[in-house]
Amino acid sequence: MIFIILAVLLCASLAVLLIANEKNIRMVSLAMAVVGGGLVFALALPVLFGFTSSWSSQLVLVDRFSSLMASLVAFVYVAATIVSVRYIGHEYKEGILNRDDARLYFSLLHLFALSMLVTVLTNNTLLMWIALEGTTLSSTFLVGLYRKKTSVEAAWKYIIICTTGISLGLIGILLLGYGSRLAGLSGADLFLLTSLQNNAPLIQDGIAKLAFVFLFVGFGAKVGLAPMHTWLPDAHSKAPSPISALFSGILLNVALYAIMRFAFVVNGSLQSDWTSHFFLFFGVASIVLSALMMLVQTNYKRMLAYSSIEHMGLITFALGLSPLGAIASVIHMIGHTFTKSMLFFGAGEILLNWKTTTVEKVRGVFAEDRYTAILFIVGMLAIVAMPPSALFVSEYTMFVAALSKYPVLALIILVSLSVIAYAMLRLIVPMLFFNGKSDETKKHKWNSTHSVMCLQLIILFSFAAWVTTASGLNFIQGIVVDAVYILK
């Protein structure tokens, strides 16, 4: 079925290039995305919820962890396509984009999703590297879609930094393959995640450590961890908002997934949690940097981008803690995927109606577009971990895990998160509620983007309630076990 899924997305990418009518481009893209996403759910959800067993081959790895990631990719992909139908249609009508731009946009959107799915579903580390680089190549042109000077600069910065990082990651993969060869493996087994995990104790410590340094720094650039983060605010703010949602909502998690897979292999090799030092340091650095930068933001899309750096830092920090921290990290990955993508969808609605991303130029959103305003403020409260958000559950869990081992780091993070919450709400509340003049002729009606955002909030709060129960906790623990042991 995996190859059918990839064929559907590849056909979708090629088909839109042959369609003459702009509306048909959007409708065909939506239909193909729904079919492709549905097939991913049919493959992944039975494994994720334990109805069928995990399995692997030389090319494919389908366990609960990879199934979770594939499901998240599929959801955000379909959601972004639904939002894109309205978003790109609106910009086409206003003359911002032409028909060729729409073709390029949807063609690359499908390739982007395809690359992310291959990254999380492959068992071959070289293929994972190729797919992760594929996400960069396919999305670079989406960042520069508007062909403005700032968009093109953001696209160049993105491809240079991320391609350099991915190249370092390749060195790490080759080093692990070399270490596996010295350990007695040969052929395809040198680059299979399952083989690496099963034979990890045989890999020499020095090679494993050096490989992980390259892997963490290289793929960490793609995650947007400080100080490798500099591409992220520009790319997220200049890309079309549905693409920003894919970036923040799932791409960063996909890159972090790759780091996690290799980290657990290296920890198995060293018989210790040596990698935790990297997770703790870069996690805290990313959170503190985000707090400082958030105080000086004047662009609401850049604000959301720095928020993504913060949350990748939180997930990374949690991975450096005890097994309880690993549970918190998975909960946070899920919560952040739904929350941040819906916030970028909301930011897109604001941008379509106010024609600017400058905070001071946007006022009275509630008066003119109350549906967007209500959904956006609920999403903002969720992203700063106000209960009953799933992010509250994950952050509370990671603080419990951190206080006993690293109380000073826990305090630094708590202060940073308080600063971030203040900075974000200081910008957003005036945008939504200040100086608004009610004008019935300008009021915006409920649309498909609002439906997507509402569904995401329902899933977010339902997940938060479920994960606090015994069955929900067992579900997360099962994912963590598969992540650590890979079909052992």
Automatic annotation (TrEMBL):
Q: Where are the transmembrane segments?
A: 30-53, 65-89, 104-121, 158-178, 207-225, 245-266, 278-300, 312-334, 371-394, 406-429, 450-468
Kindly give the membrane topology term recorded for this protein: Multi-pass membrane protein
Q: List where in the cell it is found.
A: Cell membrane; Membrane
> Locate the NADH:quinone oxidoreductase/Mrp antiporter transmembrane domain: which residues?
123-420
The record's GO molecular-function terms, alphabetically, read: oxidoreductase activity
Q: Give the superkingdom in one word.
A: Bacteria
- Gene Ontology cellular component list: plasma membrane
Alphabetically ordered keywords of this record: Cell membrane, Membrane, Oxidoreductase, Transmembrane, Transmembrane helix
User: One Pfam family from the UniProt entry?
Assistant: Proton_antipo_M
Task: Kindly give the InterPro entries that the UniProt entry links to this protein.
Answer: ComplexI-like_HydComp (IPR052175), ND/Mrp_TM (IPR001750)
Question: What is the name of this protein?
Answer: Hydrogenase, membrane subunit 1-like protein (EchA-like)
Give the source species: Candidatus Falkowbacteria bacterium GW2011_GWF2_39_8
